[in-house]
Specification:
Blueprint: H1 28-34, E1 41-45, E2 50-51, H2 56-66, E3 71-75, E4 94-98, H3 104-108, H4 134-145, E5 151-154, H5 155-159, E6 165-167, E7 172-174, H6 177-181, E8 185-187, H7 192-203, E9 217-222, E10 232-235, H8 236-239, H9 281-293, E11 295-299, H10 302-305, H11 309-321, E12 330-335, E13 338-342, H12 351-358, E14 365-366, H13 376-381, E15 384-386, E16 388-389, H14 400-404, E17 409-410, H15 413-426, E18 433-434, E19 436-438, H16 452-457, H17 477-487, E20 494-495, H18 503-506, H19 510-519, E21 524-530, H20 534-540, H21 545-561, E22 567-574, H22 581-593, E23 602-603, H23 611-618, H24 639-649, H25 657-667, H26 688-691
Parallel strand pairs: 1-3, 1-4, 4-5, 5-8, 10-11, 11-12, 15-19, 18-20, 21-22, 22-23
Antiparallel strand pairs: 2-14, 6-7, 8-9, 9-13, 12-13, 16-17
Helix pairs in contact: 11-23, 19-21, 22-24, 24-25
Length: 726
């Protein structure tokens, strides 16, 4: 069993009697009001400072404050010089650097590599308030401001760039963020455990360069460094062999040995065989665990994966196989003459620790320095409640697993209900509606493996693909009970579910679907099939459309029983690795057959370290063993093809018709161009009125009955026969 870690609340406070600040200070004037002459820790963030647990700088700031540390915030500093990084003076312990709640490149650029016109995490939605690769830039400027002060980096940007990674925006494999930022240590994942241990050890006088034994941390060391002499290094090819895989010998094969092969090379007889002591299962597992705990897996060096796609795909596969905190080993990757060392992933928080983190005295508002300026991200979440962390879905295009892990960490029911009451009593503008009870997913609350020992030994990349694991507890009863108790809170009129629903789990509990459809849907419910075709779905590790149809049947049934007109809003991805032109066309025909007209569509965006990004970069499938002869994943990379795939998702938009017509002709599917109900797009823009009653200048809308929901019911006679490849 994995040893129980120190509880977050087990540390003695660094400063006795430190009272919570109304807001963590962002200026010297605020520090003076608090009676502070200095900060122990200064957090530099790329987001506007909103004192709410949904925002990383506030959460880690309040956790540190609760442990007796004086914490200051430098929000969105001007990075063109070091002056802004001196605003709060020199921290006593360290600078903590985060890009914010999003990777700065994803925040700033679209999937087409175009600069975004706004920033949801900035006051007024103003763009360009953070630099590209913010963690690196901020760390460098902090070092310039106060040389010698330890630099600690974290957040999703640092987590996803902790080893050599493909960078979509430069179309190259880049080094670990540690090498460019020159940070002293990187904390990856949800880092409360490592953050508190690091802070208390630094406060006790340890050097940051000497702290090398904490889970969830990465750092640079000299080539060949090991924590102790008894550690052993394992080449990654022993974890997952790239290239030709030789068959294992059959231990029951009844062939005679070559007589010449007997004995030793010099002809002398072989030494007598020593008897083998049989070990109990417990002894064997304990021995294996001890070996793993003192093993480090060496990944192919940066210089190798940069040039060799096969080695990159192999490194990606091994990296993900070593992601379960119950059995993961440390990993190391050479960068020139130094190594990037990654310790095992952090251990998940227990429920009481989750409650501790979320129950701290947050102001639950943006810092007063922003005045009345609207911050879109705050408007989106201020009436929502985060009930859990993590996701065991393992979707290859998603970064949640790489950052938060697969093990679900849930808050207690009482903690969640307390937060709802705080929203009711303290959040301005509350009218009685909670906009979401969720997290990375809507319905994984308190789900876990049935046996802890099985969970700790598992190396599956997903608990629900290709099928739901028989060891997974999919009971929704705790979530149903939470919904019912939340609805009963005085002053709460409605509880909506805004997080993405995992419908393949939901169909396991018709009672949950009934509860959801009857009480928690405001007309529409978003779900994410992502595609209709098996090819792309297999590369996404997403369930087939059978689960969608089963869920839709239950959802429609219980909506009707409740006397409500409600609709599902599906989300789809264009140009995902493994998607062909025919796949996207079949999806477009499915959308038209079901009369869906999507307002917003998503083109696949390769995020650092995601498995789908590996497919995009290498054209290999890291879900299976990698070799030069292994499966090739065809991926839409050319801008013209990506544009065509995206256009097909909005087949109804006149702006896309020219691109679709050109693509259909190239595919030999011109029979889908015409002015009849069986066609996908009209022959010309002028023919729009004969197809949909629209002209090119008109905005496509759905049928009147569902206009406000952005979805349509299937129309009689609207079906189109889809031509599938043999």
């Amino acid at each position: 069993m994995t040893p129980t870690p120190a509880n977050l609340r087990s540390y003695p406070p660094h400063r006795e009697g430190l009272k919570p600040a109304p807001f963590l200070p962002m200026s010297r004037a605020e520090m003076d009001k608090l009676g502070w002459d200095s900060c122990d820790i200064i957090i530099i963030t790329g987001d506007a400072y909103i004192d709410h647990p949904s925002f990383g700088m506030a959460l880690i700031g309040r956790v540190l404050e609760s442990q007796g540390f004086r914490v200051g915030i430098i929000s969105q500093p001007d990075w063109h010089s070091a002056d802004a990084f001196r605003a709060l003076g020199k921290p006593n312990l360290y600078f903590g650097v985060t890009a914010g709640n999003m990777d700065s490149m994803i925040n700033r650029y679209t999937a087409d590599r175009k600069i975004r016109s706004d920033d949801a995490y900035t006051a007024g939605g103003e763009p360009n308030k953070r630099p590209d690769r913010a963690v690196t830039v901020y760390a460098q400027r902090a070092r310039e401001a106060y040389p010698g002060t330890p630099i600690v980096i974290g957040s999703i940007e640092a987590s996803l760039r902790r080893i050599a990674h493909y960078d979509y925006w430069s179309d190259t494999v880049r080094r670990s963020v540690l090498t460019d930022s020159k940070a002293d240590i990187l904390l990856f994942g949800n880092a409360e455990r490592a953050l508190l241990e690091l802070s208390h050890r630094l406060a006790a006088g340890e050097s940051v360069k000497a702290i090398r034994d904490m889970r969830g941390t990465a750092f640079m060391v000299s080539r060949g460094w090991k924590p102790a002499e008894d550690w052993r290094e394992v080449d990654s090819t022993r974890v997952d062999t790239p290239g030709k895989v030789e068959p294992h010998p059959d231990p029951y094969e009844m062939k005679e040995k070559d007589p010449e092969a007997c004995g030793t090379k010099d002809g002398s007889p072989e030494p007598a065989v020593k008897p083998i002591r049989l070990m109990s299962r417990e002894e064997r597992l304990a021995q294996q665990k001890e070996i793993r705990e003192k093993s480090v897996v060496r990944l192919p060096a940066f210089e190798v994966v940069k040039e060799d796609p096969i080695s990159y795909a192999h490194a990606s596969r091994v990296f993900h196989l070593e992601s379960n905190p119950g059995n993961a080993r440390a990993m190391v990757q050479a960068h020139a003459d130094r190594d990037v060392w990654l310790n095992a992933p952090p251990l998940p928080l227990a429920m009481d620790e989750m409650d501790y983190v979320f129950d701290l005295p947050y102001a639950r508002a943006p810092h007063p320095a922003y005045g009345k300026a609207k911050i879109p991200a705050w408007d989106m979440i201020r009436f929502s409640v985060n009930i859990m962390r993590g996701c065991f879905g393992g979707c290859t295009f998603c970064s949640i697993t790489e950052h938060e892990g697969r093990i679900i960490q849930s808050r207690s029911e009482s903690s969640i209900l307390r937060e709802i009451e705080l929203i009711r009593d303290k959040t301005k503008g509350f009218t009685g509606t909670i906009s979401d009870l969720g997290g990375p997913t809507a319905n994984m609350y308190r789900m876990a493996c049935k046996e802890k020992s099985i969970e700790e030994s598992c190396r599956r990349l997903s608990c629900v693909y290709p099928t739901i694991c028989s060891n997974l507890n999919t009971d929704h009863s705790k979530l149903i009970q939470l919904y019912r108790r939340a609805r009963d809170i005085p002053g709460v009129k409605k509880i909506l579910i805004g997080s993405g629903l995992r419908y393949d789990l939901a169909v396991r509990s018709p009672e949950y679907v009934k509860e959801l459809a009857t009480h928690h849907v405001g007309g529409l419910l978003k779900i994410a099939p992502e595609h209709s075709e098996d090819g792309p779905l297999s590369k996404m590790m997403k369930p087939g459309m059978g689960s969608y149809y089963r869920f839709k049947e239950l959802f429609d049934k219980y909506s009707k029983e409740a006397g409500k007109e409600q609709y599902l809003i599906p989300y789809f991805i264009a140009a995902h690795p493994g998607t062909t032109d025919d796949d996207m066309l079949n999806l477009a025909l499915w959308l038209k057959e079901n009369d869906f007209r999507l307002d917003q569509v998503q083109t696949f965006l390769p995020t650092p370290m995601a498995m789908a990004t590996t497919m995009y970069h290498t054209r290999k499938n890291p879900l299976r063993k990698i070799s030069k002869d292994s499966e090739t994943v065809e991926t839409p990379r050319v801008g013209k093809i990506r544009k065509f795939h995206k256009a097909l998702l909005r087949y109804h938009d006149p702006e896309n018709w020219e691109s679709i017509r050109e693509g259909l002709k190239r595919m030999g599917r011109s029979e889908l161009i015409g002015n009849g109900p069986q066609h996908l797009v009209p022959r010309s823009d002028a023919g729009a009125s004969r197809v949909r009653g629209m002209t090119k200048n008109e905005t496509p809308t759905v049928n009147r009955i569902a206009k406000k929901f952005g979805q349509n019911k299937p129309r009689p006679g609207a079906a189109i026969v889809r031509k599938r490849q043999p």
